[in-house]
Design goal:
Blueprint (H helix, E strand, L loop, with lengths): L5 H25 L3 H19 L7 H21 L8 H29 L5 H11 L4 H7 L5 H27 L8 H27 L8 H17 L4 H13 L1 H4 L10 H33 L8 H25 L15 H8 L13 H88 L1 H7 L5
Helix pairs in contact: 1-12, 2-12, 3-10, 3-12, 3-14, 4-5, 4-7, 4-13, 5-7, 5-14, 8-10, 9-10, 9-12, 13-15
Length: 471
């Protein structure tokens, strides 16, 4: 157990963070998601730990806590980057519609597949298992799309964020239906949603007005603690707590929109900007740390042998095929022909794992193998990696063509002065030749003029005959 001593744990955690930072840099160069590298690191650590510590460690509790905190940080991080402007209303609504239709359709088809091929899986449990497999992973997508065109990057941020939120709401709606006594139906769910939005708005206004008056410099983690508290209380009240986090992020990122006209007098703009800037930095850093340890621990809990099952491969491939087929139909319907690489950017990740571990015991099916979960996560991430690399090469080729055109244009522009110089030299030479010829003609005429009078002076008879002298 020496490997799990206090100082060794500090060393191990520090090395993991350093490697995760290096994975991020490597991911930007290769377009391979850093999440896959972290999972691979976790699998390696699983074998290393198994060698030094024979007894199996239960890491599910830590994984759940990290997943919840990571989810909050990722949604808050995405919300802080969303600008609510009139011209962005259509892209937001379009991304929301694509996320919702893709989520529901993918979950329904995946549930049919699980119901058909997994022993003992009824349709209600199948929908519960299929929902996590149908949610896009903003934890993977948002860091991976930074190199895309601005409008495509914005679309993926909107879509993945709304897919996370709506997927979690759908999951807990299905969980509520397991208990008919507590199930409030669609009307109760809608009322719950409205109540959540109202609480979120009130809490957001209160937090902004109070925190801008706090003079202490160390208030960002206090703010995060308040958000975590609101999230946990909301879950206890069976509210859609993630909406509270989303709305707070939107309010502080678009504070002028939520404090219009004369209400702006309640704001201290400098302090609000400072809070926003510091919160954004801390959210990014915290999300990075939590995401790192979540996926490493997830890799440590994976049962590798389940990946080599024929039934796991068959079920996973059917689910993956349905994901991209449904996505192709939805994107063609809402976006048109320009759907690359968006079609293949549909990885599953943190939310999928987190909700899988949140399935109630009464809905769990012994015949479902966790390898399906891992297979879908790895396959969709690899497909996204391939699409991003292909798009990067395409962009690189286009940029090379543009560079070649610019070089050719510059060379042509550089050649123009030389040609002009040559033309001018020829013109100058011609002018000089013409000038010499003109000078020679003038000199010859002058010479003729000078010779003319001399000859006439010698011929007095002609002059006398023409003009007779007076007597």
């Amino acid at each position: 157990m020496e490997i799990l001593s206090s100082y060794n744990l500090i060393i191990e955690a520090s090395v993991i963070v350093i490697l995760s930072f290096w994975f991020n840099g490597l991911s930007k160069k290769t377009n391979i998601p850093s999440v896959l590298m972290l999972i691979a690191l976790g699998i390696i650590l699983q074998f290393v730990l198994g060698y030094f510590v024979p007894e199996k460690l239960d890491l599910s509790g830590g994984l759940e806590i990290l997943g919840i905190v990571g989810l909050i940080m990722i949604v808050l991080e995405a919300a802080l980057e969303l600008e609510l402007k009139r011209e962005k209303l259509v892209p937001i609504l379009k991304a929301t519609a694509i996320a919702l239709i893709g989520l529901v359709a993918s979950a329904w088809v995946a549930a049919l597949i699980l119901n058909q091929f997994v022993p003992g899986m009824d349709m209600q449990s199948a929908l519960l298992y299929a929902t996590p497999l149908s949610i896009l992973s903003s934890a993977i997508i948002i860091p991976s799309v930074s190199s895309l065109a601005a409008h495509k990057k914005e679309f993926h941020i909107y879509e993945s964020t709304f897919s996370d939120i709506m997927g979690i709401m759908m999951f807990y709606f299905l969980v509520g239906r397991l208990n008919p006594v507590e199930d409030a139906g669609v009307a109760g769910f809608a009322g719950n949603l409205v109540l959540t939005v109202v609480i979120a708005l009130v809490a957001s206004y209160a937090i902004i007005l109070i925190f801008q008056r706090i003079k202490s410099q160390a208030k960002q983690f206090l703010l995060i603690a308040v958000l975590l508290l609101l999230y946990a209380i909301g879950k206890k009240m069976h509210l859609s707590s993630l909406i509270i986090i989303l709305i707070f992020g939107l309010v502080i990122a678009n504070v002028k929109l939520f404090f219009p006209g004369k209400t702006a007098i309640f704001l201290e703009n400098d302090k609000i900007k400072q809070i926003y800037h510091e919160l954004h930095i801390i959210t990014l850093e915290t999300a990075f740390i939590v995401r790192t340890f979540f996926f490493v621990i997830f890799g440590m809990t994976i049962v590798i042998s389940s990946l080599f099952s024929t039934s796991v491969a068959l079920i996973s491939l059917l689910i993956i095929a349905s994901i991209y087929l449904i996505r192709w139909v939805v994107l063609r319907l809402f976006i048109g022909k320009d759907i690359l690489p968006q079609l293949f950017i549909a990885p599953r990740g943190l939310i999928t794992v987190l909700l899988f571990y949140a399935i109630p015991k009464e809905a769990q099916v012994a015949g479902f193998e966790s390898g399906i979960l891992l297979f879908v996560i790895i396959a969709t991430s690899l497909v996204m990696t391939w699409a991003m690399i292909k798009d990067k090469r395409k962009m690189g080729t286009m940029l090379d063509e543009i560079d070649e055109e610019l070089v050719a244009r510059n060379q042509a522009e550089d050649a123009l002065p030389e040609n002009n110089k040559e033309d001018r030299s020829e013109e100058d030479a011609a002018e000089e030749t013409t000038g010499l010829e003109s000078t020679t003609d003038i000199k010859e005429k002058d010479a003729e003029t000078d010779e003319g009078p001399a000859e006439n002076n010698g011929d007095d008879t002609t002059l006398d005959e023409t003009f007779p002298k007076p007597s």
